[in-house]
Model the fold of this input.
Amino acid sequence: MSYLTLKNINKIYPNGFHAVHNFNIEIEKGEFIVFVGPSGCGKSTTLRMIAGLEDISSGDFLINDVRANEMGPREREVAMVFQSYALYPQMTVYDNIAFGLTLQGVDEDDIDKKVKDTAKILGLTDYLDRLPRALSGGQRQRVAIGRALVRKVGVFLMDEPLSNLDAKQRVTMRTEIAQIHQETGATTIYVTHDQTEAMTLADRIVVMKDGYVQQIGTPYELYQDPVNVFVAGFIGEPPMNFIRGTVKDGSIAFGEKLLDLSQKLGKDVQKYEGKKIVFGFRPEGAVLGEQDDSYVITCNVELTEMLGDNANVYVNDKDDRAILKVGPHDIPEMDSDLTFSIPYENVYLFDSETEMVIK
Done:
């Protein structure tokens, strides 16, 4: 029995806009689930339906196999952390964390213990007497998390909680959220548009686009076995390279180089003759120089980006372009010719019409 179940969940607004289409997932107790996708894909709307802040147009939301569609937020025993922190500026850190418990009429001694225990987990013990304006962005976010954590609810919902932080603070808070989850074992549903956050935090990721679920899986599954072009391009940094073309004599062209697709499709290559196809490979999936059992390509170096422990190399051949990820000591000269190999096992093929992966 799953802890949370969403069956064919839809959200249709009064103006007819269909924000979420047939969303299905079963979530186990203690899982860390991340909804990821571009702005407007329906991930925050889905989170708000789980929280009880948005009505569900159709479908069933179950908590421990009990239908919860009509339950209010408090009955669902969920706590939500918002993007904007939503702290009370006139209250101290202590009072902000304690606020929900105070409303519930919890005994003062119990409140004091719970607030101090929560503050210890979050590293806020020395800040309990401060007002929010005296805290950094990361500290304010920890207070917002503490206000949710102190209630000991069954489910934590986080809506882009790190988007207001700078890059360094995001990395720090990402680590802290992972540690909090490990310590509390709370079921957590987290919304973000940042695929790095999704990959580093999630037990499973739900990739969404235009209100539809594209794929659900572990970070490894999404990276290694994307089901379509969107997931393949969304997961991974830099994104996967895509070469679009028409199959002719069993091959597709990358610039002046013909890539023999029979190496990937075998006899099935005949089925795709004359059809448009998408040839994909990850920047880190290519190796410099010539290698056996690989597609070997020579391109012109257009641009290089030194990133410290690695570098991105932008190459082109006529109208076709790609990004390669190389070691810091392998950076080629600008405008030089570069030969690289793409091992057959690192290549992904997609149907150009459906954009689904070709197995």
Remarks:
- The chain has a mean pLDDT of 93.
- Residues 167-184 form the longest helix (18 residues).
- Residues 83 and 161 are 4 Å apart (CA to CA).
- The longest strand covers residues 294-306.
